[in-house]
Amino acid sequence: MLKFTQKTNEVLEPNATLTLTFDQRNKSRLKTTLDDGRAVGIVLKNGDSLKKNDILLNDDSQVIIQIKAALETVSTVYCNDTLQLARACYHLGNRHVSLQIAPDFIRYQHDHVLDDMVKGLGLEILVEQAPFEPESGAYHTTSPHHHSH
Questions:
Q1: DSSP at 70
Q2: Within 13 Å of residue 30, how many CA atoms lie on the same side as its CB?
Q3: What homologous superfamily is domain 2-69 in, according to CATH?
């Protein structure tokens, strides 16, 4: 089993990929398989999490993997009314829901109770399969390559 213990900010060409759900990317210790089927173990610092496009090195730096965000069941609210989206963000955030926020949509892990609440605010929900990359949170520090382009 290949063991990965370090993230890097270096610009390196990956030679493997690892597709993970949001919940998997939030674990600092994980046994899984690369997209090519090789078994891997990830052992990061406690509290460290992975983001889409993060680069991990194995202990001998021979394998360089790029993290991919898996498709998962999410609820997405598409809306051009920023006030309506802000209201939904407020109510979902008040329930400590992880949110992916974009100019014209918000997305969260699918939950029919939350869907009903958002519908009660007058918004429509689309349950779909999509990558989920929520905001890190105000107290979470990120490395320089974790910004929007």
A1: P
A2: 21
A3: Urease metallochaperone UreE, N-terminal domain (2.60.260.20)
Residue type present at position 75: S
d(CA 53, CA 56): 10
Residue 65: name the closest of 13, 143, 20, 30 by CA: 13
Mode of pairing for the β-strands spanning 16-20 and 64-69:
parallel
- Residue 88 phi/psi, 5° resolution? -65, -40
Evaluate whether 76 touches 128 at the Cβ level (below 8 Å): yes
What top-level class would CATH report for the domain 71-131? alpha beta
Rounded to two decimals, the pTM is: 0.82
Per-residue pLDDT tens digits for 48-83: 889 999 999 887 778 899 999 999 999 999 999 999
Cβ(45)–Cβ(82) below 8 Å: no
First vs last C-alpha separation in the chain: 35
Alpha-carbon gap, residue 1 to 103, rounded angstroms: 42
Residue 27 CA to residue 35 CA, distance in Å, equals 18
Tell me, what amino acid is at 42? Answer: I
* Of 100, 51, 105, 108, nearest in space to 74 by CA: 108
